[in-house]
Design goal:
The chain is of the alpha+beta class. It has a single domain, classed as Roll (Nuclear Transport Factor 2, Chain: A), CATH 3.10.450.10. The chain has three helices and five strands, in the order ααβαββββ. The chain has a five-stranded antiparallel sheet with strand order 1-2-3-4-5. Strand 2 and strand 3 form a beta hairpin. The longest helix is centred in the N-terminal third of the chain and has 18 residues. The protein is globular, with a radius of gyration of 23 Å. The protein starts with a helix and ends in a 9-residue tail after the last strand.
């Protein structure tokens, strides 16, 4: 009888241990300090992308426009970092034709909801958006 009870307890312990592994490994929410996936249609992601384009447009003295947001990630810090990979249209001169480019940018939004452009990188290959 003791043997059957100990086997039952062992199976119960294994069930509890392995039955809850999805709780440990199935996290989809962002972890403080780490980047988590964000919805490309989220209004905060779109606002961060548009802010980055406005800021970089002034810096380059060019006309930049958002074509499409490919991927977005969010990092919770003392505020939020948005890493956005997007396709932009770039036009340097009035009579030049627009050129599409892939860009990866990081925009910081502080606790007072003010944005700042942390980085802007023109990508050589579209596949770099997946990183």
């Amino acid at each position: 009888m003791k043997f059957k009870l100990s086997i039952l307890i062992a199976f119960a312990a294994l069930f509890i241990f392995f039955g809850n592994t999805n709780v440990c490994y199935g996290q989809t929410e962002p972890i403080a300090g780490g980047y988590g996936d964000a919805d490309v249609t989220d209004e905060n992601v779109v606002a961060a992308a548009k802010f980055a384009i406005r800021k970089q447009s002034r810096k380059q003295k060019a006309t930049l426009a958002l074509v499409e947001i490919k991927t977005a990630k969010m990092q919770v810090v003392a505020g939020l970092n948005y890493e956005v990979c997007m396709v932009i249209s770039s036009k340097a001169k009035l009579k030049s034709k627009p050129v599409e480019q892939f860009v990866k940018t990081v925009v910081y939004k502080n606790l007072n909801n003010f944005y700042s452009l942390t980085s802007w990188k023109v990508l050589k290959k579209p596949e770099e958006c997946a990183n």
